[in-house]
Amino acid sequence: MYYQFDDYSVDQEKRMLVRNGELISNDEKSINLIAMLCANYPEVVDKQQLIEKLWPDQVVTDWSLSKLVSDVRQLLGDSGKDQGYIKTIRGKGFRFTCEVTEALLPHTPTATRANGAKYKKQSLALVMVVFVVLSIVGYNHFSSSISDYPYPLRIAVLPVQSESSNLVDDWVKYGIMSMASEQLDRYDSIQTLPVATVISSTTDLAAIDKNNVNDERAYYSGLCEKIGCTHVVAIRHKVESQQNSVLSYQIYSNNNRSPISEFVQPDVFDAAAMMLDYLVADLIPDEKQYHPLQETFSSDQKANRDYAIGVYELLSGDIKAAKDYLQLALKRQPNFFWANARLAEVDYRAGDLTSARKRIAKLSSFEHISGDQPDSNDSSLSTRESHKSRTSDNALQSSRRYYLQHLRSNVLYSEGKLDESLQISLQLLNNHHAMDDPLLMGNELLNVGSSYQASGDLQLATDYLEQAKLKYQQANFAVGEGKVLFNLGNVYLVSSRKEEAIESYQQAREIFIRFEMTGYSLMAKHQIASTSIFLGKIQFAEVELRMLIDRYKELGDLEGELTAKLDLVDVSVAKSDIVEAINRVEVVLPQVESSELSYIKNHARRLATVVYLKSNQIEMAEKYFNLFEGGWVDKRPDFAFVPAHIMLLRGELAEALALARELKSTMDKDWTEKHQTILSQFEKAFNEGKIIALNY
Fold first, then answer.
1. 85 touches 97 (CB < 8 A)
2. Domains of the chain in sequence order
3. pLDDT tens-digit map of 469-488
4. What is the C-alpha to C-alpha distance for residues 55 and 57, in angstroms, rounded to an integer?
5. Which of 121, 225, 261, 311 has the fewest CB atoms inside 10 Å of its own CB, making it the most exposed?
6. Residues 6 or more apart in contact with residue 455 via CB below 8 angstroms
7. For the segment 407-461, what is each residue's pLDDT rounded down to a tens digit?
8. DSSP conformation class of 690
9. What is the DSSP code string of 98-128?
10. Which ranges of 515-617 would DSSP assign to H, the alpha helix?
């Protein structure tokens, strides 16, 4: 059967998409997707139905389908924003919007040519083997051309071509260019050419005839020959009628060019932050980390498929998608132990600690969950087979107990019960199931190191984290190394080694991007942004944090979302914009207090205390100071003197001065001129014998 719409015809049998007699694409997945949508026009086609038909006997994620739809939209000259041909029906699937007719004969293309503007690569990540090969399909629309080059890539970021006639937007040409060059250059896999070199080597870009592909290719290949780059990044800017800023980019290499990726935001900085996030992911080569799951399967193949996708989404950091697929697996197989266990991990990651605790308790109460493994008492089994089954079952029980204890430790950590969490992790270091597996030992050593870091013992934290790194290297588990680097960044940050912290976060982020771990790469980006506040890069931090909040919401990561919102309060404090700080803290406080994340509550109360002190709202400041749990330790001038300031407001002048002076002796090299200025105000209050308003 052949389908026609507008100037296009689709021949599914011969795998051809033709427009006005010219072959546009012969990609099988793209043709099959269009054919399925045409066959069901004007009805909605369910996402799960599309996945099962397009990737039979394979495990793929919603993300893979979304990328394929995006690629097909570009083939048809469509976009995700306009949705002229393929409309997304949220929560259901996709629907073809153009009238479709069936034809007996296809249009025959008058010429055959490859579509030079569209490139893609499907990367297979083996997850398990059970009779058929099940794999997770990743997708990067330009990585096929990227992977052909040695690293680091040499990137030339061109001056931005802006269609805006507003003089205010003139800075975009070199401002966004410099921003992109600077951020890309932080990654080991990427080396950007100096901005000055690129500017001096480029001619009038407007002279390129964009309708003449050969002219365009000749220009970019000639530029790279001239300045020694492997790839060129061309960024364009325009302002829509609604005053939204639109940034887009294309990547050029030899005779290849990527599709145009477009980003629309009310603020051009926000659009730039989003654009750079995706640009980095396009340029860094993607790899796969193997996660064998066959020993955790149930007896239901369809449930196993949904479970595998759920685990992949969880490892990638997409909490919402992980929950959807794991719940679907449990609908098919309610007694599926490992789907239940992973769902407990989803609850923990989403900040629903009550549900996580309940699931762990319920799973811990069962010696064996039916539906996962064959019954070892089955009379049809021989004595040898029965013994083998019992041995396997014992190993499975051991792995289950280990996993639940490990997860319980993580939940306790999120509840702020660091000592209890640490004790479980230390015990698990001697667990035989973990001792025989360098990957599991790496996980426990990482947990122990993180707990020591949170409790302030930085030397022990560093020792355990370095041991974890060695175990992950032994297990050939690069993602684990990324997690270690992330936590080492936290250690450096607490040690006031901020530049080293950012470098460690950057290295971790590159690994997470390489292995398509979206949630973790956002966490690393978040830490870079929040650390930048301390280094005075306020505007950069604010832009990044605003973008991160939206991304966290998409992924269902409540912890990340709340932390980013609290970091925006820090931004306001750093700008000395107390009105904005109060507005931001009052918006996020109800969300934080209604959550179960104890350490985030403490962080929010700390911020609220400082903000209300600065606005002279004494009662509110004392309220949140009294709610704060544990010792107040914060070396920043705006935060360090809070306990002494509270004493001063109570009229305890001598005690306040003594506490402020004690702070100076404990801070030693971290003491600054600003600290000294604040201390002198305590001395003035004591000498004058009255409460004064502190200015900091």
1. yes
2. 2-115 (1.10.10.10), 145-283 (3.40.50.10070), 289-347 (no CATH), 631-696 (no CATH)
3. 999 999 888 989 999 999 99
4. 6
5. 225
6. 418, 419, 422
7. 999 999 888 888 999 999 999 998 887 888 898 899 999 999 998 988 888 899 9
8. S
9. S--EEESSPPPPSB----TT---EEEEEEEE
10. 518-534, 538-555, 558-574, 578-593, 598-614
